[in-house]
Amino acid sequence: MKKTTAIIASALAVAAGLMSMPAQAEDKNWTKVTIATEGAFPPYNLAKADGTLDGYEIELSKILCDHMKVECTVIAQSFDGLIPALNAGKFDAIMAGMSATEKRKEVIDFSVSYGSTGQAFATLKGGDLETLPMKGELFSLASNEAGARKAVDELKPLIEGKTIGVQTASIAARFIDEYLKDVVEVREYKTTEQHDLDLVAGRVDFVMASMGYLKTTVEKPANSDMVIAGPRFQGGFLGAGSSVGLRKTDPELKALFDDAIAAAKADGTIKRLSEKWFGFDLTPQ
Amino acid sequence: MDIKFALETFWSLAAALPLTLQLATTSIALGSVLALGLALARLSGILALDLFARTYVFLFRGTPLLVQIFLIYYGLSQFPAVRHSIFWPLLREPYWCAVLALMLNTAAYASEIIRGGLLSVPHGQVEAARACGMGRLMIFRRIVMPQALRQALPGYGNEMISMVKATALASIITLMEITGVAAKLISESYRVIEVFVVAGVIYLAINFALTRLVAFAEHRLNPQLRPPLPISTELKGETH
Fold first, then answer.
1. Using an 8 Å Cβ cutoff, are A198 and A175 in contact?
2. Which of A165, A188, A201 lies at the smallest CB-CB distance from B184?
3. What SS3 class is residue B208?
4. Mean pLDDT for each consecutive 10-residue tract of chain B (240 residues)?
5. How many CB pairs under 8 A join A and B?
6. CB contact under 8 A, A187 and B188
7. Fewer CB atoms near the end CB (10 Å): N or C, chain A?
8. A119-238 CATH, one of 3.30.565.10, 3.40.190.10, 3.40.50.620, 1.10.10.410
9. Domain A31-116+241-277 - what CATH class?
10. Predicted TM-score (pTM) of this structure
11. Is residue A118 within 8 Å of A211, Cβ to Cβ?
12. Chain A neighbours among B 51-80 (CB < 8 Å)?
């Protein structure tokens, strides 16, 4: 029994060694990078009627590749097969609106984030919460915890005694639990659509959810009374946002992407592209 | 199974017990009144009332309670007319929407149970009461109702137990009763077994108490189940 295990293990080791050889040869000097996306998650990535790919990530990838001085090909793959295919060497990077979660970090590496929608509030038009201060301002729990706390303290007297709807076990629910539990009454819903229905019906005064979600929600005709209000929060336990997924064995490529994303952040490319595709700034802070 | 965690869970869930009991008792109490009205409408012999009661039972017994709760909570609030009506202060609250749905649902089942009880009273007794000169109301109060109640009680006990369990559905309209709190605890701790076992034990305890109560009421209403009273000495004396 032990013997067979040893034989299988050594066989696997040999196979792994063989497979990693071409990759290692490339490691030193990346000239060609294949990036996989989903092509069905607008506005991050989408397939146009003629079959070509477009979207925030597609445009951004071109700019990143120019900066890295590599030749990039973008291909489309179903989302749930992306991580296994990356580790099998079918392509070199993932840009598919994928959040860098702890669970995923166990199997692959992630670059720094290139887009974080953050969590925002929505309320009814004409309600007294529509005029919440710091509209559209972004506070990061990771880099500016004190600022975020100050913003929360400024909101507290204005939302005292109001009812807020959040999805059960979501990061919005956790945010309310840690920062606003003592001033608002919380109602928890199975889905975000349900708290939207109750917001429109007037059962809750406001809701908190991902800005990306709220942005598309308020644009639906049925929700014409909904409006996004107040500041946005991101970072920390609210999640790092979308990042490039990479094999753990390619630290050089990760360094290249990190560098290119930092440059795109600095020169305003991320702000420009995200405002074009999402209608608001996704620059992670 | 982690005993310490289960104990913590028990106290969190016990805090939600009053809401579960409140939901069950309010909806059963209001539902029973409606059920009696429906049963009497079915037996009234007036076609319009009979048809109304039949349609009501058909609709509320034929559709899932979950669908009824969704329709009352999310459905009604879609109409601006409802939101501007005098009922909105009640319909706005998830609690009253849940009570309304549970009450309307239990009334449909209970009306059939009560109807069965009323029909079980032998016609001869009613005739005899009439021959004694009793009025309709007095016959109902003294002859029909006590016997109908006795007949309906086992079936009605079943219905009350299913109502206690049906309150679990109120969690989907944001009410934090036992199941609602249990679902929240699971989403935070990912420990399904402990939380649901404890929740199950609490429901079991409520229903155990309820079945004892029903058994006690049954005992009270059925003198033939009790041992005969000892013949008093005074009566004995008189035979001499």
1. no
2. A188
3. helix
4. 90 96 97 96 95 97 96 92 91 95 97 95 94 93 92 95 96 94 86 92 97 93 79 57
5. 33
6. no
7. N
8. 3.40.190.10
9. alpha beta
10. 0.74
11. yes
12. 74, 77-78
